[in-house]
Amino acid sequence: MEIEIHDNLVEGRDYILLPQQVWEKLHGWYGGGPTLPRKAINTGFSQTDLAIEVYPLRLQLILMSRGERTFIRISKKGTVGQLHKMACKVFDLAPDEVCIWDYYGRTKHSLMDSLDKTLDDANIQMDQNILVEVTTDASGSLDGLVKRNNFFESDAPKSGLPDENFAANNYASRSYSSSLTPSIYLRSPNGDLDNVHGSSGMITRGSPLGLTGLLNLGNTCYMNSAIQCLVHTPQFTKYFCEDYHREINRQNPLGNVGELALAFGELLRKLWAPGGRAPVSPRPFKMKLSRFASQFSGYNQHDSQELLAFLLDGLHEDLNRVKHRPYINSGDADGRSDEEVADEYWANHIARNNSIIVDVCQGQYKSTLVCPVCGKVSVTFDPFMYLSLPLQFASTRSVTAVVFSCDGSVPPTPFTVNVPKQGRCRDLLQALGAACSLKNGEKLLIAEIRNHKIYRFIDDPVLQLSTISDDDHLAVYKLPKLEKRVNYIQFVHRHEDLDHGNNNSLTSWKPYGVPLLAQISRNEIVTGFDIHELVHKMLVPVLRNPDSLHLAVQSSVSTRTHSYHTDSSKCQLLLVDDSNTVIEKSNDAIRIPQSSLATVFFINWPKADLKKIDTHHLEYLPEVFMYAPPAKRTRGEALSLYACLDAFLREEPLVPEDMWYCPRCKEQRQASKKLDLWRLPEVLVIHLKRFSFSRSTKQKLETFVNFPIHDLDLTNYIANKKTSERQIYELYAVSNHYGNMASGHYTAHIKLVDENRWYNFDDSHVASIDEDEVKTAAAYVLFYRRVREQDIARGTSNGSQLYAKRSHGYSHR
């Protein structure tokens, strides 16, 4: 049986691909396994378009008459004939007695009888059902009934078949975002399908066009939300409902042979078609999408903004009017004006990229880099498709750390401070010192804690704070300033853990909590009694009864037996060296070795002693960035969209991982970078960066962003001051995300421009909403359209009249 691997593995991070000969050599030298062979398949129309199929199709075969089902794996480039043979083998059926059906969504879509057709060409998708039917029964039994009728499996007689919602139920992401069965609709006498929800606010017959929902295919709400925003962009509606086929570029090597544009265009036409209000299935479109972007195959939840980015780029390449891209080398400014250089860059861009997507959605940045050493200034003008705005001010970040007082004066206390995002360690030390009321004769030492030990000291004043991740754990030790050089001693807590694996129960000790830290002058003579006093002083704030503390120094690891518990009231203190070997007890001087980090002592806490301390103070160490959903804010207290734009355009130094090569210094430099808006598009797409990723965590920011619905004025943000026209925009669509990273749901708020009304598109359900319901903390991607000054003067707006009267629908040419 083929070994299943986790979904969404990333090449280079979770696995690497090796030629068979290399794997065999490595396996012969080192062993290992299991072997996971994968095929190279053709993914395009050229014989050189090859890719490794890491995830073959996972299909569920259903034999209705026996109540049996099973999952199989088969390449999407496998044939219908191969699938037929596998089905016969799995259910032990004679090939001439079996036919198979495309049973997507529990509906018999088509008989799969073209044996040479590939499953990819047959529109078979990841995690869907295949119905296996025995054809010899013509007497009206279950198989005969299934063959003659088109029905959902839930309507079938119960025949021992397990009741599962979907073929991919055991694999798809758990999310309340997906309705795994189609919505219920009633058929009217004239054959139209009407939504049974005819209550107030829901869409019924006679409503304007463009109010058609999309069926959720299983965790596809992200796709439905993005599609609804695009198909309700007036310029795209007009373009795809006219003769867009003449602009399809099938020769573009960067495109999708026009198939993505065709699939999107057909889906848009269905959504704008006159007639009933039955929701449309986006299955054909998703099939094409999965073919050209394998990351969207299957039925896992994805990001609507990532889909939008791919879709806009893919549509552009499929519709690029430039058939042969010229090679263009953009020259330096050489003292020319910004206007002249920007126009040259834009003309060069249009010479290679000219499509409806560029016409509507692309603008232009001015990007300025300044070398911090020689002052070299580099200015370029680059196109953009959307703006990704941060939700926190880019200049600052919050850092949470716990301060430990090494003189035992106060218990460990957490502090959260704001520091420059591109600041240095000295900025964090200064902020923490002010927060904890640091005295003149004291200093702070920051340490990163991993596995209950000090992993590193963060003591270089000029160290970049970007080296501290949001999910790091920081302990800050308040120590007296000493004129002499010092050695550090860390005291690591361990709790008792009994192993009852044999008759002689052994006591083992497991590290826990946050280590304590002390310092001594180098070459200072230290005795066991001095160590005792240091520990006693530091533990006083966490002891429920400080007088109960009694420490002893254990001299040998061999005493870790049951006999050790003759006096369990004692806390055993072990002195160990770097190799974790116990240093024997001595009342004489103890030499503390000079170490780049700290000499380690272990404090062993028997179970009885743990009751004597406030363990919360020793165990709790928050992450650097303490995430908690903020309280609901009023709109007056919310973060404004303008503030997000200011943070996005603020000058900042490049991160160390993204250095710039200075042509004058001939070296990589950490240049400062400044973005300015130079040219704005007709449709401005704004992505609010709600999702943050760190080393091991993913978080969603629930910040309420107060964005204008009318009169988004970007005039003052345009660096090209020779542009006299005001830059005014109006909101017409929002992609929303509700919930968290693990379980979320996407919807869309759409304004029908000529109706001047807002609607909520929630997969197959569409309902009217008031304008004041559009602004929520779920807003994720905003769509604005330009409003001309003459339209403002007339009280109208551009794009308010669609390509044709809605009463007549669209026309095919």
TrEMBL record:
Its EC number is 3.4.19.12. The keyword Protease applies. It is an enzyme of class 3 (hydrolase). One of its GO terms (biological process) is proteolysis. Pfam families: DUSP, Ubiquitin_UBP8, UCH, USP7_C2. It catalyses: Thiol-dependent hydrolysis of ester, thioester, amide, peptide and isopeptide bonds formed by the C-terminal Gly of ubiquitin (a 76-residue protein attached to proteins as an intracellular targeting signal). InterPro entries: DUSP-like_sf, Papain-like_cys_pep_sf, Pept_C19_DUSP, Peptidase_C19_UCH, Ub_carboxyl-term_hydrolase, Ubiquitin_UBP8/5, USP, USP_C. GO terms for molecular function: cysteine-type deubiquitinase activity. CDD domains: Peptidase_C19R (cd02674). Keywords: Hydrolase, Protease, Thiol protease, Ubl conjugation pathway. It comes from the Eukaryota. PROSITE patterns: DUSP, USP_1, USP_2, USP_3. Recognizes and hydrolyzes the peptide bond at the C-terminal Gly of ubiquitin. Involved in the processing of poly-ubiquitin precursors as well as that of ubiquitinated proteins. Belongs to the peptidase C19 family. This is Ubiquitin carboxyl-terminal hydrolase. It comes from Zea mays (Maize).
